[in-house]
Design a protein that fits this description.
Layout lengths: L3 H5 L1 H9 L1 H16 L7 E5 L5 H8 L4 E6 L2 H9 L6 H10 L11 H4 L40 E5 L11 E7 L8 H13 L1 E12 L14 E7 L6 E6 L5 E6 L3 H11 L3 E6 L11 H9 L3 E7 L1
Parallel strand pairs: 1-2, 1-4, 2-3, 4-5
Antiparallel strand pairs: 5-10, 6-7, 7-8, 9-10
Helix pairs in contact: 2-6, 8-9
């Protein structure tokens, strides 16, 4: 599981730039960043960065520093090869979800966190999962994205459970990171490692899978398929495919949201909240019925944590 993306390679780029579930995840993340006031002037950390798509979004949003980290050497090679702005795939995905949202000032994330926080209780009480809260509407995209300085982006091959001290950062993003923790100790180590790199009051925004869908839901129309569920270890192992040409096999652990919340609290995060997945506006290729069916049982949810 640890090095599976080394063999997936460019097929991950294909999935990221064409799959509907990826478009919804990006729309969800952009809405959360906008609700926090944007990232202009912030030091940001993008974990499980893959080929650097979200890292580049942070940089284009005006982040002072955008550091992308992935355990896969091939993903980091692709991230560096795509450059600062990125290749054609970036434009393809932005066409599906809208261009980068405008930053709304240089204030620290902690000062605007209430706009996106679900009000989860502090301390041990945050272990309980909060009810999903609809995120604020996404504003219209600007005519042009902010320019990016090449020096604002860094990429690093590293294990998220054993991060070096690179911060402190104001914001960390993690899109499908925690589901690759092979056991409970690795899951907790990931959250501790991230917390150690965040300033007090910093934020973690994580896209995490929703448990319990297989075999009841078929996500094939949205670009991914679960093919098997094996009960073993601390969490079931899900075997899946990105529906690329040809399909790319991968596997991950089916952790419950309560497992993520427990690990976050143990790591020292003071609040844990949840928001539902949000979908892009309907268009000719993906109409409202298509997205309504997806929202009934989406692949993921947004986890929000305050350091």
């Amino acid at each position: 599981m640890r090095f599976q993306y080394d063999s997936i390679g460019e097929r991950f780029v294909e999935s990221k730039t064409t799959a509907a579930f990826s478009a919804a995840d990006t729309h969800t993340l952009l809405g959360a960043l906008d609700a926090l006031g944007g990232v202009r002037g912030l030091d940001t950390l993008d974990l499980a960065c893959g080929y650097g798509y979200n890292t580049r979004l942070l940089a284009r949003g005006g982040a002072r520093r955008a550091v992308g980290v992935d355990i896969s050497e091939e993903m980091i090679r692709l991230a560096r090869a795509h450059g600062v702005i990125g290749a054609d795939g970036v434009g393809a995905l932005e066409g599906a979800v809208g261009a980068v949202l405008p930053a709304r000032g240089a204030g620290a994330v902690a000062a605007t966190a209430a706009a996106a926080d679900t009000g989860a209780p502090r301390g041990a009480a945050a272990r309980a999962e909060g009810a999903p809260v609809e995120a604020a509407p996404v504003e219209a995209a600007p005519a042009q994205a902010a320019p990016v300085e090449a020096a604002s982006i860094e990429y690093l091959v590293a294990d998220a459970a054993k991060l070096p001290q690179m911060g402190p950062f104001d914001l960390a993003t993690a899109v499908y990171l925690f589901n690759y923790a092979t056991d409970r100790s690795a899951l907790h180590a990931m959250f501790r490692s991230i917390r150690a790199n965040l300033r007090d009051g910093g934020r973690l925004l994580a896209i995490v899978p929703n448990a319990g869908a297989y075999p009841n839901v078929d996500w094939s129309p949205y670009g991914v398929r679960i093919v098997d569920r094996v009960h073993e270890g601390d969490a079931p192992l899900l075997k899946a495919q990105f529906l690329t040409q040809p399909p790319a096999d991968f596997e991950f652990r089916e952790w419950a949201h309560s497992d993520f919340a427990e690990a976050a609290v143990e790591a020292g995060f003071s609040t844990v909240g949840w928001q539902p997945n949000r979908t892009p506006p309907a268009d000719g290729a993906r109409d409202e019925a298509y997205w309504t069916a997806y929202r009934a049982w989406p692949i993921s949810s947004l986890m929000t944590c305050t350091a």
